[in-house]
Amino acid sequence: MPCQLTQEQIDHAIAFHGHWCPGLASGIRAAEWALAEMGPRSEDEELVAVVETDYCGIDAVQCLTGCTFGKGNLIYRDYGKLAFSFYRRSDGKAARLVLKGMGNTAEQEEMTALHRKKATGLTPGEADRLQALREHVAAQTMDAALGDIFDIQALNDPPPQKARILESRVCDGCGERVMETRTRLRGNKCYCLPCFEKQADVA
Ligand SMILES: [Zn+2]
Ligand SMILES: [Zn+2]
Fold it and tell me: Chain centroid to CA 10: how far?
């Protein structure tokens, strides 16, 4: 089944992200799955998303599911994988969606090659070709069945801990307040990470 979200939801994601692209389309589909299977947009921390790479699609998840970096219910793990896990706190329902890839292999290879070449400059023809490929793959991603885009695995692990209000301390280097868990001790002084790293440079 093609994407079941409203045009308004899709437009909202494009406006939030800044442009239309295949990555955003894949994030829109992940958000669509979460909204359908895990219940409504998360106003607080009812729903938690764990994402495994920072790419365009994360913006769609943030603006459509309400799992946001600021609220602490979007957790970024730097694993370099195109995967989203969603956890519903009310009953522990959880699943991980792994993106299978976008477009066919030939299209992916051509897009990757053109993206690489972008650094040194594309001819107008190549730029048009890249744009056409991106449009095509984004459209395909919106039209495909969710099961064709993602491997969907049920998860049994508990949701990540809730965002906590942490104690803060004053850094002995810069005098700024810093979350206690992010401080480092050297001698009997307590430092924020940038000050601690500066100390390490002179030591
Ligand atoms: Zn993008
Ligand atoms: Zn400091």
Answer: 17
Residue 106 Cα to ligand 1 midpoint, Å, equals 21
Ligand 1 centroid–CA 60 distance in Å is 10
The CA–CA distances, whole Å, from 31 to 123, 159, 183 equal 36, 18, 35
Q: Which residue has the tokens 């919106």?
A: 142
- 18 and 72 in a single domain? The answer is yes
pTM here? Answer: 0.86
Between the CA of 177 and the centroid of ligand 2 the distance, in Å, is 8
Whether 68 and 139 map to the same domain: the answer is: yes
Nearest by Cα to 115 from 99, 100, 102: 102
Q: Which ligand is nearest to the CA of 196?
A: 2
Distance of CA 36 from the midpoint of ligand 1 (Å): 23
pLDDT band at 105, cuts 50/70/90? confident
139/81 same-domain check: yes
